[in-house]
Design a protein that fits this description.
Catalytic activity: N(7)-methyl-GTP + H2O = N(7)-methyl-GMP + diphosphate + H(+)
Strand content: 15-25%
Largest sheet: 7 strands, mixed
Order of helices and strands: EHEHEEHEEHEHH
GO biological process, one term: nucleotide metabolic process
Number of helices: 6
Low-confidence stretches: none
Shape: globular
Number of strands: 7
GO molecular function: nucleoside triphosphate diphosphatase activity
Distance between the termini: 9 Å
Helix content: 25-40%
Radius of gyration: 17 Å
Subcellular location: Cytoplasm
Structural class: alpha/beta
Protein name: 7-methyl-GTP pyrophosphatase
CATH topology: Maf protein
Number of domains: 1
CATH class: Alpha Beta
Length: about 200
């Protein structure tokens, strides 16, 4: 059985992790994602990322579990998944012509030793000026109701932007692969020096 576990049901995160060519399992943790009073965006995404990994620890002993969480930060507000069309459209109206900061928390938990690695990565998106038709058409076509920021960068969301700024574009999709590879190497699992789909427990 693979030793690596992705604590997520997101198909987008799975697509990113597939790029590393390592066998892994997926499991969706059930956690309370409510923000604590006065909790900063960075603290929130790191706490939730680690909580997702920790929730699966009993289910996956002697595994490496990846947890990740993302929020958008705009004009002092912390925005998660819109959940419905009205909220998605309202978010995109606010973002039109402005820059939005996305924070993605990343955790790697070694359940055998209890050791964990934890960080967050920032990525800034500048939206072009969007018309009401742009917004309505985008939301209707892509249905980004389960995506922080109300768009999917890996799909038609790319048509909404003027500029992207950050160290790792994968961060915007929800899994910072550059930092994850660093964590995996520190945990003794180097994606580059494994044969494709080699059992991570070997």
């Amino acid at each position: 059985m693979p030793r690596l576990v992705l604590a997520s049901s997101s198909p987008w995160r799975r697509q990113l992790l597939d790029r590393l060519g390592i066998d892994y399992q997926c499991a969706a943790p059930d956690i309370d994602e409510t923000r604590k009073p006065q909790e900063s965006p960075a603290a929130l995404v790191q706490r939730l990322a680690l909580s997702k990994a920790a929730r699966l620890a009993d289910q996956f002993p002697a595994h490496l579990i990846i947890g990740s969480d993302q929020v958008a930060v705009f004009d002092g507000d912390i925005l998660g998944k819109p959940g419905d069309e009205t909220t998605a459209k309202a978010n995109l109206r606010r973002f039109s012509g402005h820059s939005v900061l996305f924070m993605t928390g990343l955790a790697l938990l070694d359940t055998a030793s209890g050791r964990h690695w934890l960080t967050h990565e920032n990525y800034r998106v500048t939206f072009r000026s969007l018309t009401e038709q742009d917004i309505a058409t985008y939301v209707e076509r892509e249905r980004p109701l389960d995506s922080a920021g109300s768009f999917r960068m890996e799909g038609l969301g790319i048509t909404l932007f003027d500029k992207l700024e950050g160290d790792d574009p994968n961060t915007l999709v929800g899994l910072p692969l550059i930092r994850l590879c660093q964590m995996l190497r520190e945990a003794g699992l180097d994606p580059l020096h494994r044969h494709p789909h080699e059992d991570a427990g070997a």
